[in-house]
Write a structure and sequence with these properties.
Layout (H helix, E strand, L loop, with lengths): L1 E4 L3 E4 H18 L7 E5 L2 E5 L1 H7 L1 H8 L3 H5 L1 E4 L4 H13 L9 H11 L2 H14 L5 H10 L3 H13 L1 H6 L8 H9 L8 H30 L10 E4 L5 E3 L3 H8 L7 H7 L9 H16 L18 E9 L2 E6 L4 E4 L7 E8 L2 E7 L5 E8 L2 E9 L3 E6 L2 E6 L5 E7 L2 E7 L8 E7 L2 E7 L12 E8 L4 E9 L6 E5 L2 E5 L4 E6 L7 E7 L9 E5 L2 E6 L9 E3 L3 E8 L8 E6 L13 E2 L1
Parallel strand pairs: 3-5, 28-30
Antiparallel strand pairs: 1-2, 3-4, 6-7, 8-9, 8-31, 9-10, 11-12, 12-13, 13-14, 15-16, 16-17, 17-18, 19-20, 20-21, 21-22, 23-24, 24-25, 25-26, 27-28, 29-30, 30-32
Helix pairs in contact: 2-3, 5-6, 6-7, 8-9, 11-13, 12-13, 13-15, 14-15
InterPro entries: BACK, BTB/POZ_dom, Gal_Oxase/kelch_b-propeller, Kelch-typ_b-propeller, SKP1/BTB/POZ_sf
Keywords: Kelch repeat, Repeat
């Protein structure tokens, strides 16, 4: 039988047999007294060795042979940093190629193998050490992995920290972990924790111990130099535009930014907001305050900033949701597969929205002029309210779901509260005509209307009339025009920046809106065809689009500073809008690929 490796050379069974015989012969020869030309003294005990055989495995002995050192000339090497028993064990393993490692001697052999630079034994020790990793051995293995710069063991330790994070926190075993490693664990999507409270408390605990160590180091240095230790250190990181020193972010600040502080509990955030470390760390204080505001006064629904995204191992799946008649479908963004949620009682679902982390759908029931609003709870749909209107679309903002009827131009605000529902109509004073789309923007809702009911107007001449509903005063104002069609307009945001995308492919940024009317700044054209867009959102710097025209995602490029790349799905069927939502992973049953919603 012949084996061929990349067609470079052939190894036959005969050659393998000959090679094994040569190795065995060399091993036996090196045991003969007349070829033992190297004496190794280990803490008073002498071993007879062969230079060639030792240099074959050990870069340490190879280096001695190459250099004009006294050991090379005298034929004697003295070792003091290992025991005779350990060196004898190494010799036996090199001669027999058998594993003689135990839990008791592995670390000593690993240390000696690193000093003697024996890759074969280093790998052998590391394979065993990987199986020994536990809460009891974690500190020892972690420190040795860094001491010997063992990439394989450090990778294993990082995986262990992510998997056993809660147990390590409970046993206070992060105090000696280096900042860079702890930061990598905190920001990892693979971190396995029940809730983010555990992570935030671990961050502050680590920062406490780091601060104590820094204080002790400063005191020791000041005693040596007879200088008073500083009560507050100012680390600068270059200069600001005005020439003033820019304060370098603290380690506590960097760790908090790497966490998902937006999903920590209100109790935890309130507790940490009183922590003494925040008294001298302005940036960390701002992060905790941001978490507190987001936790208690959140006004944007269906958008989760990076600091509020659940981790991949949290049991939460982020999905894009759309509806078609009775069917409500969810796209798992991680696996890129579609699944149908339980059937919605609405005959013709027109719009979906996310309000207070719950999914709502609205549409007509039969041939009536009334629409039904449903909420998705505990894997089923429950009726919330009956709304006047036949062709309703929704925007969630603050304490309300705002509904706009395309036919009647009527606007209502709906506030579901438990088993009761508050609903009120917002007077438009006849200003709103032909509404087609709406977006949540700062403290306002912007509604885009067709400028004419004549569908024969040239597409390149279409202009959307923009109205602004200021909240919470419910005051209307005319905000000018947007060059492009109002129909099939979709919006998305990235941080505090708001964008709209028109069906002709033109991308605009919306700015202003606090004290003056919003302005629309053209960015670029993403495509040059007409596409009946359903929805768009950004998740982890990827723009997810749902349209009606078959095109390849590879044809759509990212926009620097807005999104890195595009994922595009399409269907020729009459689907509703497309929104970002999250569901427990157990909600997904049998997953299938729906031919009517295709990824390009």
């Amino acid at each position: 039988m012949k084996r061929n490796y990349n067609n470079a050379f052939e190894i036959t069974d005969e050659k393998l047999e000959a090679f094994q015989e040569i190795v065995c012969s060399v091993r036996e020869l090196c045991n003969e007294t007349f070829v033992q030309d190297l004496l190794v003294e280990v803490n008073g005990k002498t071993f007879n060795c062969n230079k060639f055989y030792m240099a074959t495995f050990s870069y340490f002995f190879r280096g001695i042979g190459r250099c004009e050192m006294k050991e090379s000339k005298s034929g004697k090497v003295v070792l003091t940093n290992m025991s005779p028993e350990t060196f004898d064990l190494i010799l036996q393993m090199l001669k027999t190629h058998e594993s003689l490692l135990t839990d008791e001697n592995t670390f000593e052999v690993w240390q000696a193998a690193n000093f003697l630079q024996i890759p074969l034994l280093i790998r052998h020790c590391e394979r065993r050490i990987k199986t020994m990793l536990s809460l009891d051995t974690f500190e020892l293995i972690y420190k040795h992995a860094h001491l010997y710069n063992s990439v394989r063991i450090r990778e294993k330790v990082m995986q262990y920290m992510q998997k056993e994070f809660e147990s390590l926190c409970k046993n206070d075993l992060f105090s000696f972990v280096a900042f860079e490693d702890f930061l990598q664990v905190v920001e990892s999507d693979e971190l396995d924790v029940r809730d983010e409270d555990i992570v935030l408390r671990a961050i502050f605990r680590w920062a406490e111990q780091a601060a104590d160590s820094e204080t002790q180091r400063e005191e020791a240095e000041s005693n040596e130099n007879d200088v008073e230790p500083s009560t507050k250190r100012h680390c600068t990181d270059g200069k600001n535009g005005d020439g003033s020193a820019r304060v370098k972010p603290s380690k506590l600040c960097k760790l908090l930014l790497a966490s998902r502080y937006g999903i920590a509990s209100h109790v935890c955030i309130m507790e940490l907001s009183k922590h003494p470390l925040l008294q001298k760390d302005e940036e960390a204080t701002q992060i905790i305050n941001e978490a507190l505001v987001y936790n208690t006064e959140r006004t944007c629904h269906g958008y989760w900033p990076p600091f509020a995204l659940h981790r991949e191992l949290s049991g939460t799946a982020y999905v894009g949701v759309t509806a078609n008649n009775f069917k409500v479908s969810a796209l798992d963004l991680l696996s890129k597969t579609w699944t149908d949620l339980p059937r919605c009682p609405i005959m013709a679902a027109k719009s979906v929205t996310v309000f207070k982390d719950q999914l709502y759908a609205v549409g007509r029931l039969g041939d009536t002029t009334t629409s039904s609003l449903y909420v998705f709870k505990i894997n089923s749909w429950k009726l919330v309210d009956l709304l006047p209107g036949e062709d309703i679309f929704m925007v969630s903002k603050g304490h309300y779901i705002y509904t706009i009827d395309r036919k009647s131009s009527r606007v209502h605000c709906v506030m579901p509260t438990g088993d009761s529902v508050f609903r009120d109509e917002i007077e438009t004073k006849g200003k709103l005509q032909n509404p087609e789309s709406a977006i949540d923007f700062n403290r306002n809702i912007l509604i885009f209307c067709r400028s004419t009911s004549d569908d024969r107007i040239k597409k390149e001449e279409e202009t959307a009339i923009v109205y602004c509903l200021s909240l919470p005063t419910n005051q209307w104002s005319h905000c000018g025009h947007l060059q492009g069609p109002a129909k099939n307009l979709v919006s998305f945001r990235n941080g505090a920046s708001h964008y709209i995308l028109l069906r002709n492919g033109s991308l605009w940024q919306v700015v202003g809106g606090h004290v003056k009317n919003p302005e629309f700044i053209f960015i670029k054209n993403l495509w040059s065809f007409e596409d009946s867009l359903k929805g768009a959102f950004i998740h982890k710097d990827v723009l997810y689009l749902f349209g009606s025209v078959a095109t390849e995602s590879s044809n759509l490029t990212g926009v620097p500073g807005v999104f890195e790349k595009v994922r595009y799905w399409y269907s020729e069927k009459n689907y509703s809008n497309f929104v970002l939502f999250f569901l427990p992973e157990v909600t997904f049953g049998r997953v299938r690929n729906d031919e009517s919603t295709q990824h390009r």
